Amino acid sequence: MAKLSLFDRRRQRVRTALKARSGGRPRLSVHRSGRHIYAQIIDDAAGKTLAAASSLVKGQKAIGATVDAAAQVGKDIAERAKAAGITTVVFDRGGFLFHGRVKALADAARENGLEF
């Protein structure tokens, strides 16, 4: 077995803890790259993505990788979750630390009605 990177070990640890306490709720998964930030609400039981949002907007100028862009993505994912009938989720930060853009996305999602 290959040695996992610190990021991958942290991601495994977070995901395992989430599965233990999710209670069947969908998972709000966040991915952060150097240029963009992405969020998906995933139903693990069915293996389906229920809602998604990102800073990469097709057909428009991308809003980039700033804290403001992350807050906009958090607002968008909360609105799309409401439209899909989802009010409570469990937050999956992956291997990313909970500060900066990831925290801005989570705070904006909470402010716009998503509970976690």
How would you sum up this structure, described in words?
The chain has 116 residues and is of the alpha+beta class. The protein has one domain: 2-Layer Sandwich (Nucleotidyltransferase, domain 5), CATH 3.30.420. 38% of the residues lie in helices and 20% in strands. It contains 3 helices and 4 strands, in the order αβββαβα. α2 packs parallel to α3. The termini are far apart. The relative contact order is 0.21. GO terms for molecular function: 5S rRNA binding; structural constituent of ribosome. Belongs to the universal ribosomal protein uL18 family. It comes from Novosphingobium fuchskuhlense.
CATH class reads: Alpha Beta
The percent of residues in helical segments reads 25-40%
Q: Report on the biggest sheet.
A: 4 strands, mixed
Radius of gyration: 14 Å
How is the secondary structure organized here?
Layout: H1 6-21, E1 27-32, E2 37-43, E3 48-54, H2 67-83, E4 90-92, H3 101-111
Helix pairs in contact: 2-3
Summary tags:
globular, 116 residues, Ribosomal_L18, 3 helices, alpha+beta, ribonucleoprotein, 5S rRNA binding
Q: Can you summarize this structure?
A:
With 116 residues, the chain is of the alpha+beta class. Helix content is 38%, strand content 20%. It has one domain: Nucleotidyltransferase, domain 5 (2-Layer Sandwich).
